[in-house]
Amino acid sequence: MTTRAVHLEVAHSLTTQACLMAIRRFVCRRGKPLEFYSDNGTNFQAASKAIVQRIEVESQDEFTDSRTRWNFNPPSAPHMGGVWERLVRSVKAALTVLNDGRKITDEVLLTTIAEAEDLINSRPLTYVGLEPGTEGALTPNHFVRGVGAISEEHSVPPTSEAEALRDRYKRSQRLADKLWARWVSEYLPSINQRTKWLSESPPLVCGDLVYITDEAVRKSWIRGIVTDVYPGADGRIRQAMVETSKGKFRRPVTRLAVLEVQEGKSGAAEEPHQSYGRGCVGTAPYHLSTAQPSRNMRSTPDETTPVIDQP
């Protein structure tokens, strides 16, 4: 739950047996889980009973662990699984790239699913310094397999079937690129909404630690710090200047993700922000716009002065 690493399995049906085999594949690769969390799907309900029976009848060490528990969400309460449902929802939306009207072979499907798992588990969890040569941020992949990103360099075997293999391989990589672009568009808005229910999220301010994402470059997470913000005509922050180890970049807020670990920072609201320049929060007792910018608004960003809340 802490890292929210993702493991994806392809189940060929919604039967109990398909669910059990998917769990078994997970156990073989990742180890024996102590707890399951799921909704009240009939296949999950039946699988939980089958696991309990198998533990009781057969060797306790063969399938899972004798302490394994299965926890179900209350009926009609999907929000109770919000810790994991957010990533599940974004994965489902991103995988719509597979529906391109062409027949998908098992080989391409499994490769794309594996690429999806690696992409999602490459998202940064921590902040590190901006200095050149600094090691990258920790990701779920570090905890799952002990290392971060894998090499993007691949070779095609020089055989008589190389061209056929290359075509299938290229298609799986194109799907992975589409998956990355779709997942970024689904994931970034969800982590930028840092307050619950209908309350509005605070806008970007100078000093916020963010990641710049690029839909064109797979697994691109450039970290930086906000040094300037630019409200639009409505007073909402539309753009920001971000300082990174590679220089300063001006980006729209829809391409900036505030580092998730900042959510638990205590006392941040009372601490004055350093003044970096025009449009930034200084030590004076005023704030910028109090509303989170909408991704669907079409107003053109400008460089007006900050909107000051009247006391």
Description:
It contains 6 helices and 7 strands, in the order αβαβααααβββββ. The two termini are 41 Å apart. The strands form 2 sheets. A 5-stranded antiparallel sheet has the order 6-5-4-3-7. Strands 1-2 form a two-stranded parallel ribbon. 21% of the residues are buried. Helix 1 packs across helix 2, helix 3 crosses helix 6 and helix 4 runs parallel beside helix 6. Helix content is 31%, strand content 13%. It is α+β, with helices and mostly antiparallel strands and 311 residues long. The C terminus is likely disordered. The chain has a domain of 76 residues.
Protein traits:
7 strands; alpha+beta; five-stranded antiparallel sheet; 31% helix; 311 residues
Write the layout of secondary structure elements.
Layout: H1 16-30, E1 35-38, H2 42-57, E2 69-72, H3 82-94, H4 106-120, H5 140-145, H6 162-192, E3 209-213, E4 221-231, E5 237-244, E6 247-252, E7 256-258
Parallel strand pairs: 1-2
Antiparallel strand pairs: 3-4, 3-7, 4-5, 5-6
Helix pairs in contact: 1-2, 3-6, 4-6
DSSP strand tally? 7
Principal-axes shape call = globular
Please report which band the strand proportion falls in: under 5%, 5-15%, 15-25%, 25-35%, 35-45% or over 45%.
5-15%
Assign the structural class, choosing from mainly alpha, mainly beta, alpha/beta, alpha+beta, or little secondary structure: alpha+beta
Main-sheet strand order equals 6-5-4-3-7
Order of helices and strands: HEHEHHHHEEEEE
Give the CA-CA distance, first to last residue. 41 Å
Uncertain parts: 152-156, 194-198, 261-279, 281-311
Outline the biggest β-sheet. Answer: 5 strands, antiparallel
